[in-house]
Amino acid sequence: MKITKICCIGAGYVGGPTMAVIAQKCPHIQVTVVDLNEQRIKDWNDPNTENIPIYEPGLSSVVAEARGRNLFFSTEVDKAIDEAEMIFISVNTPTKTYGKGKGMAADLKYIELCARQIARVAKQNKIVVEKSTLPVRTAEAIKSILDNTGNGVQFQILSNPEFLAEGTAVTDLLNPDRILIGGDTTPEGETAIKALVDVYANWVAEEKILTTNVWSSELSKLTANAFLAQRISSINAMSELCEKTGADVNEVAKAIGMDSRIGSKFLKASVGFGGSCFQKDILNLVYIAKSYGLNEVADYWEQVIVMNDHQKRRFSNKIVQTLYNTVADKKIAFLGWAFKKDTNDTRESAAIYVADDLINEQAKIAVYDPKVSEHKIVNDLDYLETRSGQDNKSAVVAFENAYDACKDAHAVAILTEWDEFASYDWKKIYDNMHKPAFVFDGRNILNAKELEEIGFVYQGIGS
Ligand code: NAD
Ligand code: UDX
């Protein structure tokens, strides 16, 4: 079966870049990305591709090449479902904020809506691909909805989790470590798997395309994120011990990372991991384990989150303690708000939690992030519901450049590892700050020795 038309439901951080790359690499396939959010679709269709809603290095030129040729962004969901042979579901699956499993389980209401919509609209057989990250055995629920509410047509469900990381989405999509496709082991299932393998085979070597049963594929995504996050919590746990013992976590990370069994990646101690995936997916895993009565398994993975919360809290506590146990009315400059560099995404960013703690201590937060607006920063704080929107607005101000953000500050805190922060004129920043001038480097990106020579009191993570 040759695919000629693809529809993707959800034009977010995954749907947008993934479909842009499929369209770029498969000019013979028409790719339509649909979303309920009209503004988001309008932004994807902005004549200037620099204004697309998601910032990712290299993405605007991929969109510029394919958009209007075989890549389309639209709000006409039914039409796109009707026309496509293959439908990707790439909607959000946040942690539930209500009811059973609140604060742990994945909220599957958007997934179910998609399944019901596909069932209602589809008049021909379709392959439905789970691109969203889902609890293991979700395909079963999707299949039941499709089969029970559909028009008698045949559906094949595939699981094809996405492993891209934000900030490197385009290169990750162009050169993936692997593509994972899970499907039924029936002849129809195998035909569906082959159809999706053929799409990726346009640019990915076949030996990198792994096929499994649906449940292994669904569970592998949660497992991959849990293992990655576990490495960060492990090194962050060591960072606290380093601070007590005179060891340096960067040196420890290098020393252990050179052991080929351990490997050097994902060992950067930090103020704590953020992003829309790690916490949500681990909580989801914990919830699934608990629901099978596997309490030790659940407790084991939950510690990754406990450690991460501790690391964020430890950072804000350190700022307060070092500033003579009071930050009331002191200006603390935050460099960075995004959860990592090269993205405008702030979901679950450590910066939000550190700011919230410091605002509780009545600090004034001044933020500079190259890609994040004041509106978004205040919204992120409002989402925590710690205080009124008005109080958040008066506690935090965003600046257009770092020098203005740091002027008259008592301390600078690095929350995101944007490359530009390391190249600043730190003497100029120092001259305009209150003394003693403190730097809390939550990403270990600055040169401690140089800053101390200027006169700063410098504290990194884990040394
Ligand atoms: P997102 O919030 O950026 O995008 C989801 C989009 O889906 C939104 O624009 C929303 O309006 C749209 N949507 C929701 N319900 C809809 C419906 N019924 N019809 C049409 N549109 C609908 O989310 P995201 O970051 O792209 O994540 C999507 C999924 O991919 C999640 O399951 C996530 O866990 C997974 N994932 C994310 C990443 C990442 O780095 N962000 C990486 C791998 C996997
Ligand atoms: C993650 C997974 O890496 C990706 O495979 C999956 O598809 C989605 O979730 P993402 O959240 O976009 O990707 O970014 P990632 O690079 O994993 O970083 C997550 C967080 O961990 C960031 O806050 C980052 O700063 C932090 N981090 C990462 C560290 O603190 N130390 C590290 O060594 C690596």
List the helices and strands and how they pair.
Layout: E1 5-9, H1 15-25, E2 30-34, H2 38-44, H3 59-66, E3 71-74, H4 77-83, E4 86-89, H5 109-121, E5 126-130, H6 138-149, E6 155-159, H7 169-174, E7 179-182, H8 187-200, E8 209-212, H9 214-245, H10 249-257, H11 278-291, H12 295-322, E9 331-335, H13 350-360, E10 364-368, H14 374-384, H15 389-395, E11 396-398, H16 402-406, E12 411-414, H17 426-431, E13 438-441, H18 448-454, E14 457-459
Parallel strand pairs: 1-2, 1-4, 2-3, 4-5, 5-6, 7-8, 9-10, 9-12, 10-11, 12-13, 13-14
Residues 162-166, 225, 228, 232, 266-268, 270, 273-275, 277-278, 339-340 line the site of uridine-5'-diphosphate-xylopyranose.
List keywords for this structure.
463 residues, alpha/beta, Rossmann fold, 2 domains, six-stranded parallel sheet, 14 strands, binds nicotinamide-adenine-dinucleotide, binds uridine-5'-diphosphate-xylopyranose
Provide the helix percentage. Answer: 40-55%
What's the structural domain tally? 2
- The low-confidence runs, each spanning 5 or more residues with pLDDT under 50, are none
Assess the beta-strand content as a share of residues: 5-15%
Structural class: alpha/beta
The CATH architecture classification of the largest domain is 3-Layer(aba) Sandwich
Number of continuous helical runs: 18
Bound molecules: nicotinamide-adenine-dinucleotide, uridine-5'-diphosphate-xylopyranose
Ends apart, CA distance between termini: 58 Å
- Using DSSP, what is the number of strands? 14
Strand order of the largest sheet: 3-2-1-4-5-6
CATH topology of the largest domain: Rossmann fold
Radius of gyration over all CA atoms, rounded: 24 Å
Quick one: CATH superfamily of the largest domain? NAD(P)-binding Rossmann-like Domain
The CATH class of the largest domain: Alpha Beta
Overall average residue pLDDT: 98
Main sheet, how many strands, which sense, barrel? 6 strands, parallel
Shape: globular
